[in-house]
Amino acid sequence: MDSTGLIILPEIEDLLYPLKPEELANLEASILNEGVRDALMVWEREHEKILVDGHHRYAITQKHHLEFKTISRHFDSLDAVLDWVDKNQLGRRNLTDEERALTLGRIYQRVRDHRSSIRANSENTEEKEQGRTADKVAEEWNLSSGTVKRSSDFASAIALLKTCGESGEVAATRVLKGEIKDAMTELPAVYKSHPENFQALADGLADGARKVREVFPKPKPKIHTITPSVGVESVNNQPTESTEEMSAYRQVMAGTGIGGEYDDAFFDSVEKAAAATQELRNSEPSPIEIQSNILQCFVCFDLLKNVEPDTLWETLPKYIKEQVQPSITEAAEWFAKLSHHINGA
User: Fold this and answer.
1) CB distance 43 to 72 below 8 Å
2) Annotated region Disordered: where (predicted)?
3) Are the C-beta atoms of 24 and 54 separated by less than 8 Å?
4) What does the alpha-carbon distance between residue 85 and residue 46 come to, in Å, rounded to a whole number?
5) pLDDT of res. 238
6) How confident is the model at residue 273 (pLDDT cuts 50, 70, 90)?
7) In whole angstroms, what is the distance from residue 92 CA to residue 99 CA?
8) Which of 3.40.50.10240, 3.90.1530.10, 3.40.50.1010, 3.30.70.120 is the CATH number of 6-76?
9) Cα torsion angle, 294, 300, 305, 311, sign
10) Could you tell me if 314 and 149 are in contact, meaning their C-beta atoms sit under 8 angstroms apart?
């Protein structure tokens, strides 16, 4: 608490984004010429007056010993205050894409955690609850639920980055300024796959790397190959019957971050697998076709295993979901039997 009686909570201050130097200079000049025109918002919690809105204006008044007015607003909890601060910030036009994604992610996580605590004993599964929460937040901000969930992943990655000491703080600042070109897609990917590498990532970004992949290059996918028997045409050369559908799916997936720089390899594998599957359905498979298909299956798996299943499912178009869903349980049982045969119980 300072001499004015206002309390600055670090939980609130940590949510705020710094003004650009010219913005701060203009605000200071305006206050010196005209005074503080807008009252500072405070939350009266018991006998405390906690500053909610107006931190930059408040700092200027303290620097120049100026007077200011306050208005009180009622909040039920600190989480309600934090939610108000984030929502108020989303209304600013000068946020970077990274700052906007972080703020939206925090809003989603707050709603998700609150609803999960209320419905802890509900019959609904966590996955269904998260889906409805994402839909609720998405509708409020006129966005897709996929965008909301990706923002949540980005917010989690930034939070972990900030735990990496001084270099983590520097790296997070660079990310939020928009200086790291692939941060929106690659930070969440590293967070999910290799969170233990975040200290090294923080050090690399703090030292001047302009991309996450400059610090951690994306590994190339493993490709399985076989030599076809003489006189046997590989089933992988068969054309797929859903070329137009796959073309449409490529367009749907464009910009989602799924597959990254290996989008072409990803979709080529899917198309080949679709052709092979159709061939197996139409006739009795030969041994070479079975060999080819099992290898092709694991080519696809090498690419798909780096994608979170819930993220992948959210981006799939309806016609693919309708074809895949009836076979999911059967496929899981088949792979379980194969694993049991290879590795034992």
Assistant:
1) yes
2) 116-136
3) no
4) 20
5) 45
6) low
7) 11
8) 3.90.1530.10
9) negative
10) yes
Cβ proximity of 236 and 296 under 8 Å: yes
Separation between Cα atoms, residue 215 and residue 234, nearest integer Å: 40
Cα separation, 223 vs 225, in Å, equals: 6
- What value does the mean pLDDT take over residues 103-126? 79
CB 40 within 8 A of CB 70: yes
pLDDT of the residue at 234 = 43
Residue type present at position 62? Q
Backbone angles phi, psi at 242, to 5 degrees: -120, 40
pLDDT for the residue numbered 115? 82
What are 48's strand-pairing partners?
45
Q: Quick one: tokens of 343?
A: 């590795």
CA distance 132 to 116: 11
Domain ranges of the chain: 6-76, 95-215, 235-343
Task: Give the N- to C-terminal CA distance of the chain in Å, as an integer.
Answer: 63
pLDDT of res. 305: 80
What contacts 24+ positions apart, CB below 8 Å, involve 114-120?
114/79
Beta carbons within 8 Å of 189's beta carbon, 6+ residues apart: 257, 260, 306
Please say whether the beta carbons of 246 and 320 come within 8 A. Answer: no
Taking the C-alpha atoms of residue 138 and residue 148, their distance in angstroms, rounded to an integer, is 6
- Element spanning 29, H or E: helix 21-34
Residue 181: name the closest of 214, 137, 224, 147 by CA: 214
Question: Region 55-79: what's the mean pLDDT?
Answer: 94
Question: pLDDT of 88-110, one tens digit each?
Answer: 998 877 899 999 999 999 999 99
The sign of the CA dihedral 228, 229, 230, 232 is: negative
| Distance (Å, whole) CA 257 – CA 216 | 17
Mapping DSSP to helix (H, G, I), strand (E, B) and coil, where does residue 126 land? Answer: helix
Model confidence at 320: pLDDT above 80: no
Residue with tokens 């930070």: 187
